[in-house]
Amino acid sequence: MPLRLLLLVLALTAAWPAAAERMEPLPKQLEGVGITEHPGAQVPLDLEFVAEDGKPVRLRSYFDGTKPVILNLGYYRCPMLCGLVLSGLLQGLKETAWSVGREFEVVTVSIDPLETPTLARLKKESYLAEYGRPGAAAGWHFLTGREESIRKLADAVGFGYRYVPERGEYAHAAVLFMATPDGHIARYLYGVLYAAGTLRMALTEAGQGKVGTTADRILLTCFHYDAEQGRYVVAAMTLMRTGGGVTVLVVGGWLLARWRRDARKPRERSEERPT
């Protein structure tokens, strides 16, 4: 099976353990490649990278304590999968009312230590031009860095990747990391397609109440993220409990109104009697 096809299969089945178990044994090039989830893990914020403008920067500068962060690992010269992930993210962002840099940040980090800030800048310009929203340049960051920093970041979030020298490519999975404003991993989103609704709910979840409307937060109590479907789905028991609570409130309110109305009737009749 060609390596690129294997990479795509791995990316699309990373969230389906049962399906992965039925697959043929992975070739040696893909050993150690995949995602090991570390929910709640702290992103190492003191790691230093290089921004697209060539200036050194620590990850801490993108986690301001108020906005959630979408973290994306890949590389800019990737022949297929990274482009699919970024294009899927871009399409989902274009369909979302929230904007990069206003409600949330996006940090894209190259796993190839040989890639340069110039390459990162060109990639940023390309995606921002297609995104087309003012102010996004200050919120979507394209970074490069040293091997040591890249590995530490990848290990912290559970991103397994491997360089395949005979092809001059990196093997890796397709995933987005949803991080809280203070840099903890809140959710893993798998695949190459990210629906606007899924992104909004994941950002609301990662935002810890700092982004999203009251309605968004209420929706999260009725939905949970299904990795197999790659989206948020109705949590039946929660919905039943919520529905039961609403029913109790409605019935209770009706009974209270009825009781008050019935309690007023004797007083009204007594006031109508002639003295």
What attributes characterize this protein structure?
5-stranded mixed beta sheet, alpha+beta, 8 helices, Glutaredoxin, 275 residues, globular
Nutshell version of this structure?
This protein has 275 residues and is an alpha+beta fold. It has a single domain, classed as Glutaredoxin, CATH 3.40.30.10.
CATH T-level fold name: Glutaredoxin
Estimated share of beta-strand residues: 15-25%
Specify the CATH homologous superfamily. Glutaredoxin
- List low-pLDDT spans: 5-22, 210-225, 235-252
Which CATH architecture is right?
3-Layer(aba) Sandwich
Strand and helix layout:
Layout: H1 3-13, H2 17-22, E1 34-35, E2 48-50, E3 56-58, E4 69-74, H3 81-94, E5 105-110, H4 117-131, E6 140-143, H5 147-157, E7 159-160, E8 162-164, E9 169-171, E10 175-179, E11 185-190, H6 196-206, H7 214-222, E12 223-226, E13 231-234, H8 236-272
Helix pairs in contact: 6-7
